[in-house]
Amino acid sequence: MAFTLYTDSNMAHEAASPYPIDFNGTGTNDFVLYFGSPYTHEMLTPKTGEIMLIPFSRLKAWQPEENYSFGQIVEPPVANGYMYQCVQAGQTGRTEPVWGIAVNKQCTSGSARFTNLGAKFKAADLKLSLTQQGLETAIGGAALGLGNQLQGGKAIPVYIRVSNSDKNARSDRSDPCISIRLSETMLDTIVQSGHP
Fold this sequence. Notes:
This protein has no helices and 18 strands. It is mainly beta. Strands 6-8-9-12-11 form a 5-stranded mixed β-sheet, with no helix packed on it. A 4-stranded antiparallel β-sheet has the order 1-3-16-13, with no helix packed on it. Strand 8 and strand 9 form a beta hairpin. The radius of gyration is 20 Å and the shape is elongated. It starts with a strand and ends in a 7-residue tail after the last strand.
């Protein structure tokens, strides 16, 4: 599908889909992506309601007897507010590890080892707006409405603010924990006839 997020207003460089939010450190990070399609013959409409860009959590719960590779990030099956990164690849055992809440504390299950990266990222850490100024009043985790119909050929700037309210620098670079996805939509192609 050509309607997606791009890194440039010419819509020549597609952002990954679903777009992983890469934020490492404390404070806030503002940047802009562009939503649209470079093809003027395409039309995007929602299946219901409005076309929306939606922040969501990609963080997965730890699983027993599962193979984990270095860098994967999980949270405990009963979430405790922290995220844990696999630092020694392996298969987990039948029982979950003892999840420490101290940052950098390690725990093991089977042959896999995990370390506490700090407070988990949440969709509420992400704000979306159609203007830079709008980020000041945008609600963290709220979807961004783009209208009832979008014609290809025009890029819509999407301003993004990622906030780290934790006192520790956190990183989900290896296995992104927050993304932006598109609501359910339908893509129509406008047929060009050969008549004048």
